[in-house]
From TrEMBL:
The chain crosses the membrane at residues 6-24, 36-53, 105-127, 276-298. InterPro entries: Peptidase_M56 (IPR008756). The keyword Transmembrane applies. This is M56 family metallopeptidase. Keywords: Membrane, Transmembrane, Transmembrane helix. It comes from the Bacteria. Residues 164-265 form the Peptidase M56 domain. It holds the Pfam family Peptidase_M56. The keyword Transmembrane applies.
Amino acid sequence: MEWLTYLLKVTACTALFFGFYLVVLRKLTFFKINRFYLLASLFLSFIIPALQFEVKRKMPMLETELVDMPDLKPIQPAPVQLIQPIMVEYQPEVTSKINWVGIMAYAYSGIALLLLLLCLWRLFVLLKHTGSYTQNSSGLKLITKTEGFTNCSFFNYVFINDADLSATDLFVLLKHEQVHARQYHSIDKIILMVLKSVLWFNPIVYLYDKALEQVHEYEADEITSTGYGNQAYANLLLKLAITKSDIPLIHNFVKSPIKDRIKMLFHSKSKNMKKLTYLLAIPVVVGLVWLFAVQVVYAQNIKDEGKPSKDFYERALKGKVLNIKKETIGLYTFDLLSNGKIYPIEATTFKEKIKVGDELIVYISGKGFNIKKTDKNGKVIAETKELIYNATKVTTLTGSLIYEQKIEKHAFLYEANKARSASSKIKTIETDINGKIEKIVLNDGLFTINLNLKAQNIKDDNFKVGDQVLVKFIGEKLVTKNTYATDKMIVLYSEPKKYLIKNEALYSRFYFNDGKQKVAAVKNQPTEVAKPVTPKIISFSKITGDVQHKVSYMENAVIDIVNCRLEAEYVELDQLNGKMIAKNAVLKAKEGGSATAKIIVFNLRNGNYNAENGNGAIKVFKGLGPDQKMLQGMRDSLTKADNKVNTIVSYSAQDSVKMSKDKSIVTLYGKAKLDYKNFSISADEASYNRNTEKITAKNLTLRNKVTGITMLGSYGEFDINGKAEVWQGNK
């Protein structure tokens, strides 16, 4: 639609510019300046809408109060009447899939292209007659014709019919056409032909064409009549007025309205002071720039206490919630006004805990990020309009915690071969008098690992304090809280892998020479079968049913199903087949939040369900969208029925696969890949915890196979029961 908006703005500019010409400039006899104005205003009409300026204005702080919505009261149940039901067949509403914007684009382009081709054809027809000519002393190329277009010119070519012209009349005509040639009026004609093809739907551009041609003739008439006399020149115009031509590229001697040209011959010349009138065009230009090219951004003035305190670190923001909105991609965000700048903050997981007008302290991580949603062919169909920031912590001004992002850390992980693995930094290196390493202390900011290497007789100068390393070991002991010690280090790598210290005896027990583990990873356990669920009818306005087939039809029904309340205009409950269909339904989670759907079909035997919102039935899985979050919470409850269920997660890695001692935590290194439900994760490093059913990943790409949403980030956390968060920048 941007192209259509642009063309409409161009049309509006041409209308205002030409209106100014008609009202103020048309009667002035400064024909050269009028010609320049008409051409310049046409070009400005195309330039101004393409410009983009931003002007920031401050506005006083407004206190906004969010009005609470009234609670919905349940409908009083009507008495149950079981009668023979009327068969109801649901037919999905058919929506038009015609892309009218696309059709308009093709129609506009097709007509414009056809008109441009017509211009080329007319130019070709005109040039066919320029093969033979006679050149006079003034440089004009004279072509004698008795039919078609005559007594006209195109650049230096002059087409004349001298049968009815005296020598004097011919002299005057050639002088007139010489003015057209020397002033390059034909260039203006070509420009207008192209612009009329581009703006074929705009009536103003045709008025421009006539006005510009009129100015050309006024200019040529003024110069020619100076040496010939106004009266005699006017008589010549009347004599040749019967000649007509339909070639738009030429200047015909008497094509323009004769009456206006003769009146202009005898019109008194405008005084030079009148040239100041053209300065009035400047406000018109400024007004159009302001209207179509300037975007005003309003920012509220905030008090001094709204600025971050000195003890805040760089990415702590103190400000006010301006609004809470849903992005086209599905996420919820709120705009935080902090220190005169507006920050869009992602708030899908805690949007119910904040409201417009709240004053908050928000800690953001890294740079802003954007998300694009693509279809199966990779075409972007939706994306965030601006960079969005991720909140790691949100509190009130008094310090009350609203939200905090939690990252689970471990001192080390277990590989499938039962070796321990940890990524950390060297805190200290202790050596003896001979330079042999006795002890290396590692610390990642939370956990400390003491590597006692005295018995291994190692001498190495490559490792320094502060280096990032990857260590693999066994036989660790918990010395104090968060501190471990071992004298059985297997290998110590620098990160990136450039140097290493290897315990050959232990290394050969756990790894092959190429670094691969000698014990394969254990596959995950399959999913258990879900238990059936039973809906609880709360109220309805009308019910009919079929006792024999155990089918009930309810209108305006309210039904509880596991941890959600279903409110629907129509519900069909088939107890015999374990199926329930809800039309125009709203699902409300007991812990807050709601979602709507045209049709929801519940399978009461296994807890699964399908939802449709007008674009065909789709399976609702654990999605990233806020509306799907609540729906998915219900689906998880339906499927699990309050029993723990392990979900199948397939994974692989190029470098290594590590597993905790109880095989509950799997860590993947080097081109790690994980698939769960309809999501696929590719990352440099990833970890999956079967107990918490959570996945963490670094430098990752997340793709939803159903919706086509793709997210990129430096760090991500995923709860395979529905929640997913991805950050960009430093986490």
